[in-house]
Structures are given as C-alpha cells and as structure tokens.
Design goal:
- By secondary structure, the chain is mainly alpha-helical.
- The chain is built from six helices and two strands.
- It has a domain at 97-166.
- It is 51% helix and 10% strand.
- The N and C termini lie close together (11 Å).
- The relative contact order is 0.12.
C-alpha cells in the first residue's frame, strides 16, 4: 500500500517567471512545510516499516540467519492499528445529499445516485480503511479525487467522465 507523504510530490516541470507569483508562493510554501515536517515524515515512514514487519536491516537479518535464529516479531503497532480501524468501522457513516428546497429534490436524488455509483466503483470501503490506516500510522489522511475522461460520449455527444479516488 502506498502511503502519501509530502516528499517528492511536486515535480517541477514548469519554468517559473516573475509573472507567476502564485506558483512561486506555492513553491516556497511547499519548501517551508517540507522542511518543517521532515522529521514527522521520516518518523511516519519508520512506523509504516514497523507496521509491515520491516524493523530489521539486511545486516541484522543476515546475522540472525547465520546464528540460526528466526527473525521473530510481535507487531504491537499492527495489532493496535487494526483494532482501532475495526472500532472506527463500527461507526456507520453515510453520505446523503438533502435538498434545501422542494424544487431541488430531484437534483438531490440524482446527486445521491452519483455519490453511490462513485463510491461503489472506487471500492470506497477498502479505500476508506487505507486512508484511516495512513492517518493512524503517519498522521496524514489523504484521498485524491480526480475526474478521468473515459473517451466515451453520450447520445448527445457530451464527454462521459468518471470520478476516481486514490
């Protein structure tokens, strides 16, 4: 499972000019936050390694193998994280679009269908557990949403798009 971190997500392919003040401000803000949270990111990566039983270095694993010792682990982090996710899953949450006025009831019903189809197609139950796990292990809960062109058109010639969660 890929865990989001702030390191390396801004790949600069665009050249900056004096005409791009917003881009320059975003770049500077990113650099400041990357420096400020560098230790947290490293700690988060270490916790992820512990969760996946990667607490031994290659040299340590080799030494254990040479001595005929198993690389045993008692993974308290995984046990506690899975218990907390199980507890959080007992709380039922649902997304429901409510109309503000009677005249918008049809629109609300349509939006409820859009939300339901989007969640089903993106296996939201699994995605939601991954986001919770990332939040517990790293303190960062992130889910990206993007509109993806399918290359299809409806009967009126309009593009058909999908919403992807990752």
């Amino acid at each position: 499972m890929a865990t989001p971190t702030a390191i390396g997500q801004m790949q600069g392919t665009r050249t900056t000019t004096s005409l791009d003040p917003l881009l320059l401000e975003c770049r500077d803000t990113y650099k400041i936050s990357e420096e400020a949270y560098k230790n947290s990111i490293l700690e988060g990566n270490e916790v992820i390694d512990l969760y996946h039983n990667r607490q031994y270095t290659e040299a340590q694993l080799q030494k254990l193998a040479e001595n005929g010792q198993p690389a045993e682990t008692f993974n308290v982090i995984k046990m506690m994280a899975n218990a907390m996710i199980g507890y959080m899953d007992t709380v039922v949450t649902s997304i429901n679009v409510e109309p503000r006025y009677m005249s918008s009831a049809t629109t609300a019903l349509l939006l409820n269908d859009v939300v339901e189809v989007t969640l089903e197609r993106n296996d939201f139950e699994t995605m939601n557990k991954r986001v919770k796990l990332d939040g517990l292990l790293t303190g960062l809960m992130v889910m990206y949403e993007e509109v993806v062109h399918t290359g299809k058109k409806d009967k009126y010639g309009r593009n058909i798009n999908e919403i992807k969660l990752s």
